[in-house]
Inverse folding.
């Protein structure tokens, strides 16, 4: 073998663990795509989709005054279906104040602190899930644009690093399942590509609503790794990378997933 | 019940008792053609509470439930009865049971002739791979049933309670 | 009042068989689960659902712990006259929730 070919092979070998599974844009599929007909039907019908109960609660919260400022979301933002259209499709987004990405839940809590002068909602609280479900629903059918902001490039790269980094007692990276083995099965459910198009979701397993952060923590626990803390910078970077993977895909929040 | 007997050491008296048990069991309103011992006692007794001494025939009832469920915590299920809904002849109630959850009852649905169609959809929990049984009670007092086997796989990625 | 979603067609032809769909937000704690400390989480479920049309019961369900959280129920009725559907969910620990929907029958 000529030295050049050797070098190429060596480079290819080094690159493989990272790049082998990258999913081509044309081959990308959302979690919806992998679901059974029954679960799809549950999501498709707003009168049967249990996530709509959370959206309904969000509608009430949207117009409820809160905090020392005694202001509701609608006092500043007006009608949610106008002001929040397409917003969730670009989150996590760059926050100038912290010079870092914030996800939708964090954005809601920033509003609560700064404008309502209220205590932030706890991660995975009923209220936070309800408001994020309501806001995410306003991006239904719209293309995901998160990750496009050049100020977020280093965070996307960090998220990608975390995605391919093996961790936990099972020594698995996200990529081992979601790049390299998607469409195979873990028990009754398909392994998806990790394109988070529908969060927050109503997960059949949970029998309730949950954020992408909760889902990621579930995965980490599943591979016997120490789950990232809610809202930890690495958690947000991973969320951001996943949304950037789904760039251009259609939002289907609030989704049903197994 | 039957499995309590060791077939290699059965006395004639045991055999007679066993025969008696089987006869009694056969007379019980079982809903499937499977042998009595395949049905856990709780399911059998829950069904007996409903139907008493009446015969349960197989047929008329349809149970739509995924044979391999995506998640046992939320399983969509539709039960329907192929029977007219008129004031003179209608489906009075539909009863859904399961075999291996902690308790055998899932739901009872009470209908009236005005329903027009004897069909109900809900979402149920199945703790394990098991049989689901639906029994319809008609206005003439007859019982009809169906039994469906459902495979439940455990969730691959479990998590701590939030 | 907990969130409830009921879906009834606002209009129907007389004699048409229509589908009614209901979703009620409820944890449906089965009473068989244990905390990390080993204590049983007490049962907290909806035990009964009733639908009445113009005051008369048209559908009722007895629910058990095997019903999934946020109970979904869909059933049918014949549109006979204009009027009001009333829905009632009753459960453990004094749980009572109601909802209603009107229909115009032509």
């Amino acid at each position: 073998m000529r030295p050049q070919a050797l070098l190429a092979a060596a480079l290819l070998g080094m690159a493989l663990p990272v790049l082998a599974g990258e999913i081509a844009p044309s081959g990308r599929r959302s979690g919806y795509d992998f679901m059974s007909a029954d679960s799809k039907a549950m999501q498709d019908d707003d009168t049967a989709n249990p996530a709509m109960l959370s959206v309904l609660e969000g509608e009430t919260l949207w117009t409820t005054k809160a905090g020392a400022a005694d202001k509701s979301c609608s006092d500043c933002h007006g009608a949610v279906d106008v002001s929040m259209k397409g917003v969730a499709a670009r989150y996590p987004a760059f926050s100038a104040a912290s010079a870092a990405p914030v996800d939708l839940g964090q954005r809601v809590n920033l509003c609560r602190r700064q404008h309502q002068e209220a205590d932030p909602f706890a991660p995975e609280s009923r209220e936070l899930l309800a408001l994020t479900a309501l806001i995410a629903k306003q991006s239904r059918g719209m293309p995901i644009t998160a990750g496009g902001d050049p100020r977020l490039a280093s965070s996307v790269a960090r998220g990608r690093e975390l995605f391919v980094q093996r961790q936990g007692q099972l020594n698995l990276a996200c990529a081992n399942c979601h790049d390299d083995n998607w469409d195979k099965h873990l028990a009754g459910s398909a392994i998806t590509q990790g394109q988070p198009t529908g969060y927050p979701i109503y997960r059949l397993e949970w029998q309730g609503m949950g954020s992408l952060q909760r889902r990621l923590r579930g995965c980490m626990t599943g591979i016997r790794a120490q789950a990232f803390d809610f809202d930890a910078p690495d958690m947000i970077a991973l969320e951001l990378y996943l949304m950037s993977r789904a760039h251009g895909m259609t939002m289907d929040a609030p989704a049903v997933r197994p | 019940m039957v499995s309590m007997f060791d077939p290699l050491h059965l006395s004639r008296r045991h055999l007679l008792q066993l025969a008696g048990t089987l006869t009694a069991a056969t007379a019980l309103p079982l809903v499937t053609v499977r042998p009595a011992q395949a049905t856990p006692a709780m399911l059998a007794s829950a069904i007996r509470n409903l139907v008493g001494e009446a015969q349960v025939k197989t047929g008329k009832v349809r149970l739509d439930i995924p044979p391999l469920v995506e998640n046992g915590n939320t399983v969509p299920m539709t039960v329907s009865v192929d029977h007219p809904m008129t004031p003179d002849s209608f489906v009075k109630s539909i009863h859904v049971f399961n075999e291996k959850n902690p308790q055998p009852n899932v739901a009872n649905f009470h209908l009236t002739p005005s329903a027009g169609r004897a069909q109900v959809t809900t979402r149920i929990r199945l703790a394990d791979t098991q049989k689901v049984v639906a029994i319809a009670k008609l206005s003439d007092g007859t019982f009809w049933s169906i039994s469906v086997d459902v495979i439940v796989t455990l969730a691959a990625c479990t998590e701590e309670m939030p | 009042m907990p969130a409830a979603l009921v879906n009834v067609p606002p209009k129907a032809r007389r004699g048409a068989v229509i589908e009614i769909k209901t979703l009620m937000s409820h944890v449906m704690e089965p009473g068989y689960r244990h905390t990390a400390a080993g204590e049983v989480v007490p049962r907290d479920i909806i035990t009964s659902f009733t639908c009445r049309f113009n005051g008369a019961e048209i559908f009722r369900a007895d629910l058990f712990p095997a019903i999934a959280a946020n109970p979904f129920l869909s059933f049918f009725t014949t549109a006979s006259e204009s009027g009001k559907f009333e829905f009632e969910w009753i459960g453990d620990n004094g749980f009572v929730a109601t909802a209603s929907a009107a229909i115009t029958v032509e």
User: Anything to note?
Assistant: The first strand of chain A starts at residue 93 and ends at 95. Chain A touches chain C at residues 47-48, 50, 52-54, 56-57, 207-208 (CB under 8 Å). Residues 6 and 175 of chain A are 27 Å apart (CA to CA). The two ends of chain A are 50 Å apart (CA to CA).
